[in-house]
From TrEMBL:
Note describing how the cofactor binds: Binds 1 zinc ion per subunit.
Region RNA binding: start-end pairs: 247-253
Protein name: Queuine tRNA-ribosyltransferase
An example Gene Ontology molecular-function term: tRNA-guanosine(34) queuine transglycosylase activity
Alphabetical keyword list: Glycosyltransferase, Metal-binding, Queuosine biosynthesis, Transferase, tRNA processing, Zinc
Example GO BP: tRNA queuosine(34) biosynthetic process
Pfam families, alphabetized: TGT (PF01702)
């Protein structure tokens, strides 16, 4: 049986490329993970997600525990079988979403008691329950249960929250148990304070994890503040383990994070914006609702290999988005996920060939050009 392991294959500056090996398949890094919140990447079949080049997707513990329920998914053979995705799955711990979505939260040392935003039923999430749910789902990469303080927060509040998360990280490690082929990732907290980030990293390294996430970013602090933390935070984590930046991001966020030593990312942006008529291309964001596309026979992105660009015009995409036809969401989600994976493949090749600086310069130059001129 394949063990969970990480082969760091090349570096260019602080950027890294490698492969995470799991029993369910390899994950090429830097990796972008599409988000399959409720056991589906919305508007996509699993085969289509794989066809875009995704090696792994993310599932949300908070959503799945409430509906359809982790015990039910386990009875039905686990999340991979339930949603027909046989590649690796990473699940979050539920900690972030319980703080952002649930009603009537009560936070204690034990965990978080809350009411479901779906039906008002009462639930408890703790490090132990989060580990149990992620095991029932059959997740390949399990995240520690942590707390992300609501912003704005004082440094004292961030410190207190971080130390609680480190105690929960130890409880997560203890509850995870011995599960060959599966990985548990610790999550660094500490907000935008370097000393707190260092304290958190030391606490996590003392416990020991198969991978490490930089948590508590992409929560509204802005790109400059996020990059400010990424200028030092990833280097505090073990170099021989994957580093995951949670909830990022826009294409330029991804490029900047990879430049700073991040190996894995996830974001709802490409799929969500595909359902609101937005296309992401090498030349930036394109709003297909815009009337300028109504008579445009050209593809959304010249040279793109996705079905939306190979088979359809901007005029068609504009029409189906305006008419709120389901195929509009399907084609734009596919295109956006395809574009993200092309970007990741480009980053991996550039790092492997020691030409990341040129790749990044070209990335920014093409975006600065903006969308193609109207006809
Ligand atoms: Zn396309």
């Amino acid at each position: 049986m394949t063990k969970f392991s990480f082969d760091l294959q090349a570096t260019d500056g602080r950027a890294r490329t490698g492969v995470i090996h799991t029993p369910r398949g390899d994950i090429r890094t830097p990796a972008f993970m599409p988000v399959g919140t409720a056991a589906t990447v919305k508007a996509m079949l699993p085969d289509s997600v794989a066809a875009t080049g995704a090696d792994i997707l993310l599932g949300n513990t908070y959503h799945l525990m409430l509906r359809p329920g982790a015990e039910r998914v386990a009875r039905l053979g686990g999340l991979h079988r339930f949603m027909n995705w046989d590649k690796p799955i990473l699940t979050d711990s539920g900690g972030f979403q319980v703080m952002s979505l649930a009603d009537l939260r009560k936070l204690t040392e034990e965990g978080v008691r809350f009411k479901s935003h779906i039906d008002g039923s009462t639930h408890m999430l703790s490090p132990e329950r989060s580990m149990e749910i992620q095991r029932l789902l059959g997740s390949d990469i399990v995240m520690c249960f942590d707390e992300c303080p609501a912003l704005p927060a004082t440094e004292a509040e961030v410190a207190k929250s971080m130390r609680l998360s480190m105690r929960w990280a130890q409880r997560s490690r203890d509850a995870f148990g011995d599960r060959p082929g599966h990985a548990l990732f610790g999550i660094q907290q500490g907000g935008v304070t370097q000393e707190l980030r260092a304290e958190s990293a030391e606490a996590l390294k003392a416990i020991g994890f198969e991978g490490y996430a930089v948590g508590g970013l992409a929560v509204g602090e802005g790109q400059e503040a996020m990059f400010g933390v990424l200028d030092y935070a990833p280097d505090m984590l073990p170099a021989d383990k994957p580093r995951y930046l949670m909830g990022v991001g826009k294409p330029d966020d991804i490029v900047g994070a990879v430049e700073r030593g991040i190996d894995m990312m996830d974001c709802v942006l490409p799929s969500r914006s595909g359902r609101t008529g937005q296309g992401w291309t090498a030349r930036g964001q394109v709003n297909l609702k815009n009337a300028r596309h109504a008579d445009d026979p050209r593809p959304l992105e010249e040279g793109c290999g996705c079905p939306g660009c190979r088979n359809y015009s901007r005029a068609y995409l504009h029409h189906v988005v305006k008419a709120q036809e389901i195929i509009g969401s399907m084609l734009l989600t596919w295109h956006n996920l395809h574009y993200y994976q092309v970007l990741m493949a480009g980053l991996r090749a550039a790092i492997a060939e020691q030409r990341l600086a040129g790749f990044v310069a070209d990335f920014h130059a093409r975006r600065a050009e903006g969308d193609i001129e109207p006809l």
